[in-house]
Amino acid sequence: MKRIQRLDLNTTNKIAAGEVVERPYSVVKELVENSIDSGATSITIEIEEGGEKLIRITDNGSGIHPEDVTIAFEAHATSKITTIEDIYKISTLGFRGEALPSIASVSKLKVLSKTKDFDYGIEAVIEFGKLCSSVEKGCSNGTVIEVRDLFFNVPARKKFLKSSQREASIISDIITRLALSYPNISFTFINNGKTNFTTYGNDNLKDAIRVLYGKEVFNNIIEFEGCNDIVTIYGFVGNAEISRGSRNRQSIFVNKRYIKNKLITTAVENAFKSFLTVNKFPFFVIFIDIYSELIDVNVHPTKSEIKFQDERSLFKVIFDAVHKGISEDIKSKYAVEESLPNSEPQYFTEKFEQNSYFNASLNESLPLVKEQIENKSFTLKADNILNKSTIDNIHSEDKIYDVPIDLKPSNENNKNFESYSAINYDLSNDFKPKERAVESIKDVMETNELVNQSPKFPSLRVIGQFNNTYIIAEAFKELYLIDQHAAHEKILFEKYRKDFKNSKVVSQILLTPVIIELITDDYIYFIENSDIFKEAGFKIETFGSNTISIREVPYILGKPDCKNLFIEILDNLKSLGSGKTEDVKFNKIASISCKAAVKAHDKLSEIEMNHILNELRFIDEPFTCPHGRPTILKFTLYDIEKKFKRIQ
């Protein structure tokens, strides 16, 4: 074994940089946190080429004492703590004294700083850890730090960086979090000479959310707060309208320090889902103020993790605060006057575009009506209540009847509802008329090419249908049970996935372009992956700062979908990274196929069942649906006779 020796300072700083300075984002985070600790009220962040070429942080904080400018870049030099006891009551964002020397060791760095007590500032130039010059220079109060050619002397780290757009997106994300944490500070983010956003710095969190996330988020957030003897919780959670397929828009701050914590995330999401069962993740910004003695921030060099002394009580406080906030918001928006005669207080759970609300009993029947009614426009009054007999009369075995327009109220005392104006609700706007199974299956038969495809299981003879849900069939002394919905869903899924893969998606020109305002992070993702959207059938143009204009959209299942499809693809890109079009659209294709497929309890004819089985035989993966459930179960004669004890 070789002899043990001390590493030189330059080597140790580079090793430390491997933990502290992972990428340009880490540099921005550390330097901006230093600006915040200096008491700055205005911070400007400028980057070029994703931070590789240039990172410049300008603040109006207290500045660095002239004698301390060069000392600041020595290992473990800090103004935040003096003794080991100070670590257990940290009130600043930085304290380790590792960031500046680590950054200086892997870049060309220049710092210009001045305090209010001096008439001049000090400009120091440090290249790859070595001090090159230090001169007096006139400047305003505060600090300017420039970092150029990051990782120029560490090619192993440089080659693992992502594209400049992706690195810029990650930087934009951390600046967004810091701007939320400190709404009293005005943050300006400039990327390649273009100003992406500037916050007001007026100490109003909602104004910061409006600037950073846009009007849609601003209009759909719910405030909450809670506390106990040791912790105070407050913040905002979004409703179902702004839920997304990823957790990118969730922010947790402990004593204004941005962290990631699964326990806190779970507490908020559980409270959210107790009211709104949505298969997406809620938007939230949560602030936790807690005694510094009850947490440990010295867990990881990046300071993104924190240990809590009592996690159980923290979970309860967060859950209760969010749960109460959502509950009160629902009551304030949907509560019916409690003075309704002969009835208990009721709440409406369905909101329509005209901001009118239906009686709760009507909501129970709406799914049945929406599924059965063909494209028509009806006038529904808020005091109309569909009772069970009315619903039963809607259905017939082979015929669909129109819903009566003037339904009599089931309770004559419900005259209080007359104050709500009648609304015209066009069901065709949101709901596709139900198609008979044979029609949709024939469409698939006509478009699918079964030539040169081998069957995955033998041809089956249909015996019948069980519970209008499962097809019973046989072949070669084997019994087959097929889930008709899962089978048809998989047939449609493979058809549309192949269409996307082979660029057979039909695009439709929109009469009026759809304008979508994106946050900086989403906009950068879109720019980086614009080719994927083009392949998917979109025609999108930039429309000002962080805003896009959608002019053509993919025509899926006879109905164009604009904003939701775009957002879902964007979320998939964030989760999966850049990939093939059919990969990033997997979830959307599965969802479309599920809605279009025949449902459980749909009565099918023998011809329809034969169509499904014949199609299922020739697709690539017929044995599971897109969600992983089995489509077909096989029972051999041996299995059945063993159940009947004919054999042992």
Automatic annotation (TrEMBL):
Gene Ontology MF terms: ATP binding; ATP hydrolysis activity; ATP-dependent DNA damage sensor activity; mismatched DNA binding
Entry-linked Gene3D superfamilies: 3.30.230.10, Histidine kinase-like ATPase, C-terminal domain, MutL, C-terminal domain, dimerisation subdomain, MutL, C-terminal domain, regulatory subdomain
Domain DNA mismatch repair protein S5: start-end pairs: 209-327
InterPro entries membership: DNA_mismatch_repair_CS (IPR014762), DNA_mismatch_repair_MutL (IPR020667), DNA_mismatch_S5_2-like (IPR013507), HATPase_C_sf (IPR036890), MutL/Mlh/PMS (IPR002099), MutL/Mlh/Pms-like (IPR038973), MutL_C (IPR014790), MutL_C_dimsub (IPR042120)
Residue ranges of domain MutL C-terminal dimerisation in the record: 462-604
Example of a GO biological process term: mismatch repair
Keyword entries, A-Z: DNA damage, DNA repair
Keyword DNA damage among UniProt keywords: yes
Cited SUPFAM superfamilies: ATPase domain of HSP90 chaperone/DNA topoisomerase II/histidine kinase, DNA mismatch repair protein MutL, Ribosomal protein S5 domain 2-like
Function: This protein is involved in the repair of mismatches in DNA. It is required for dam-dependent methyl-directed DNA mismatch repair. May act as a 'molecular matchmaker', a protein that promotes the formation of a stable complex between two or more DNA-binding proteins in an ATP-dependent manner without itself being part of a final effector complex.
Entry's family note: Belongs to the DNA mismatch repair MutL/HexB family.
Name of the molecule in the record: DNA mismatch repair protein MutL
Species name: Clostridium collagenovorans DSM 3089
Taxonomic lineage: Bacteria, Bacillati, Bacillota, Clostridia, Eubacteriales
Gene giving rise to this polypeptide: mutL
